[in-house]
Amino acid sequence: MTAPSGPNSATDTSNTLTAVETKVTLKIDGQEVEVASGASVLDACTAAGIETPTLCYAENLTPVNACRVCVVEQSGSRTLVPSCSRQAEDGMEIQTDSERVRHSRKMVLEFLGSGVDLSQADPLARWSEQYEADPSRYGTEAEKIEEPVRVQDELYIRDYDKCVLCYKCVEACGDDAQHTFAIAVAGRGFGARISTEFDTELPDSACVYCGNCVAVCPTNALQFKTEFDLRKADNWRADEQTVTQTVCSYCGVGCNLELHVQDETIVKVTSPNDHSVTSGHLCIKGRFGWQYVHGE
Amino acid sequence: MADLHFGDDKPNDQERAVVDQAVGQSLAESGNGPLLEKANAGPATGGPALLVESERLVLGGSTRRHERRHLLLPTLHALQKSQGWISPGGLNYACQQLQVPPAEAYGVATFYEMFRVDDPGHDEDVIHVCVDAACQISGSADKIAELKAAGKKVHASPCLGQCERPVAQFIQGRGKADWVEADSDSATAKAVPQAGDPGLRLLKRIGRADPTSIDSYVSAGGYKALTKAFERGATGVVDEVVASGLMGRGGAAFPTGIKWQAVAAEQPSGDRPPQKYVVVNADESEPGTFKDRTLMENDPFALIEATTIAGFATGATKGWIYIRGEYPLATERLNNALDQARAAGFLGADIGRSSFSFDIEVRRGAGAYICGEETALFNSLEGFRGEPRQKPPFPTTNGLFDQPTAINNPETLFNVLDIVMDGGATYAAIGTDGSNGSKLFCLSGNVVNPGVYEVDFGATLGEVLDLAGGVVGTLSSVLLGGAAGSFVGPDRLDMPLTFEGSRAAGASLGSGVIMAFNEDVEMWPVVTRIAEFFKNESCGQCVPCRIGTVRQHETLVKLGTAPGLNGSAPDALRLLDDIDLAMKDASICGLGHTAATAVRSAIDLGLVSLEHR
Ligand SMILES: Cc1cc2nc3c(=O)[nH]c(=O)nc-3n(C[C@H](O)[C@H](O)[C@H](O)COP(=O)(O)O)c2cc1C
Ligand code: SF4
Ligand code: SF4
Ligand code: SF4
Ligand code: FES
Ligand code: FES
After folding, report:
1. Do residue B544 and residue A198 have CB atoms under 8 angstroms apart?
2. Which ligand is nearest to the CA of A72?
3. Are residues B91 and A197, on separate chains, in Cβ contact within 8 Å?
4. Is the overall model pTM greater than 0.90, yes or no?
5. What CATH number has the domain spanning B438-518?
6. Pocket of ligand 3 contains residue A164 by CB under 6 Å
């Protein structure tokens, strides 16, 4: 997204000039990997076939490098570096499974597990096991995030007990997709929360119900109301759901939709992150229009 | 694209007036080209005129090319001062005037200690009372109880940068300017017990020149260095600073000459306008540090002259002084000095017919230790939350407003005056091989005469303590470098206070804190409070620090208070080790990296007893 009248708009030719792709070569766990220049260390790890846990990173959002679960060891660097946002450079030597890396990843997962409800954050559970994170070490008195579930409309709910503060929803609502800026991080330190101004209820806020924040949330802190209700009724059966691809018919843009169906009812709508039109983001009609299909 | 959404909350008349004034006045002061004209052409209140529609997008998000988002912090200050809080109506109106999304502005307002977003329900001044170590051991808790009993509104505060006069207080005025009771001339001069000593370099004018008069400053030799700088030329000045070996005094000890060289080398290129900045990091919030306050209160013109030289040397045309919000006297003196310097032609267009144009603007922080971290400071000044940025890129290429920026500590800049006058080689001869020049130390705690002391590098810890009249009682430990530093024991009295000497001892000079504790001090509360400080001051951006500082504090509280922890102390220590390593290795910035250092050193030194626990 470039500002229409920014000082750069007329002169920014950097994208076109680098059309000829150059390559950089680096070593990941001793293995030589070649990636396009501009690629991240995370990309290089993936190219080397190494899985890296990520939480605040998404290919359709600007990296905020806040969660630190993706850290790797870079020779010559005093601290570990976030692979999601560190650019790969020629000659870099990266360790992805050293003692230090394992320790920091484990601690990040353990810290999160000790303060946040990760019960619906699927990959986190798997990684926590893989890195032997043990949140119980901090005792039952360890301070936790305690927030009421915010059910303020029929479209989606916010359960910030599950929020890991990955900033994804803020980015999706702001610069990276929606440009609505309905939500931001408020407060500081452990008291930091995603919030509207003065915690105004969503219907009174700037929110336009595009649902893009819900789509990017990795922990189910943001949930479509349909899912929330089904879960409450103990009737959310993700593995039985089918996904049907279609193109949104509300306007001529041509957004790809994925309809998630359970018991012959659409229970949520997503869009593929790699879709050239949407990059995973939709508007209220594509995201929630199906509610009218079912005759609400 | 739809317009920004604003709620229905309306400002009251006062709120409307102070926002209009803050926005209009700041625009006028900062000389913001087209917007300045628009502001001048605007309504009689001085409020802003309409924005061009295309500006909205640019201003809305974190896209940094904007012209007025940076006015958010001064505007929030104005609202807080007027109403004692930032109300929904006030915030809403500020957001409309600045075209900032309300959710983002709320995120900014809730970041700072000095702002509140809930109605206080009274219209009295609020007394901030320091609860950090130097004040804690001098009776913060009693002071708070006493003030509360007297019906005062009290707010427990982290270090207020007045550690030489515990228990420190700062009063946040309601409807009037903030002030510090102890800020009379005698009190500020008392902060410099060496005043008048002919051997002083950085402190030489204190007590001799009137800090409110440019004539007095010039009579005391002021502005000779700027003239000399023009003679040497920009490259000549940078060369001398490189040759001097000057290292930054803000804590990270980075060579200033290298930094300036890098900024000077940045040329405007196709995609960026020819604008570079000098930023003075006067956010001084490291517990135990009060040297910059002392310099700015007592010799403000010197900082302005040195900043102007930095601008000339690096090719910057604008300087910013970001000063912590709890320093009202220093802020007043700097603003007064800026006015006088401008009137005398030492700032503005074509200074001294050198064809160099430069001006400086003062911006107040609002209570957040993290805003002393350089990239957090940029974000804060730009009107965003004071969250540090990932480095690289570094400030020398992508600093304030994403432009090449030289950011320095006030003490660092003070050194530049002599370097320019005498040459880098002469300066480099002062001090030791690894540490050139002189250094300010902030002595507090159990010393006879607390205050700021200057010594040439090479003096030992013991010698500097003696300068301050020695220790009251029997020394048990010294907190060196502040909360981000470490404790050292009495066996380190012969340690030279140099970069290399402290490093060899596994410590760091940090910002020059020397806080002494005698054997009568119960150390558990002190150590636990340090952990609490980091927990409170973490910006919250990254997991290792946001949650690690909380877990560290909890673990210490358990270790220090629970008598039934018999047998589990080793587990707790192991936990502290694990937390420490993760914060050091995986945090984004220096706050997380150092949040465990002092705590661990206290445990390693045996300052806190793990027996019978
Ligand atoms: C948490 C934190 C707080 C800091 N606070 C200050 C400060 O108050 N003043 C300061 O000059 N530097 C502070 N620094 C260091 C700055 O990031 C930066 O290194 C310094 O301003 C550079 O100036 P110098 O080279 O003249 O020292 C802080 C760093 C961290 C990580
Ligand atoms: S639904 Fe859309 S507009 Fe509303 S908060 Fe989420 S991203 Fe923002
Ligand atoms: S609500 Fe979800 S997307 Fe937003 S910060 Fe929290 S975890 Fe991330
Ligand atoms: S280390 Fe702490 S202060 Fe620094 S960015 Fe992370 S959370 Fe913020
Ligand atoms: S995924 Fe890299 S820091 Fe979060
Ligand atoms: S003012 Fe109290 S410790 Fe600094």
Report:
1. no
2. 5
3. yes
4. yes
5. 3.10.20.600
6. yes
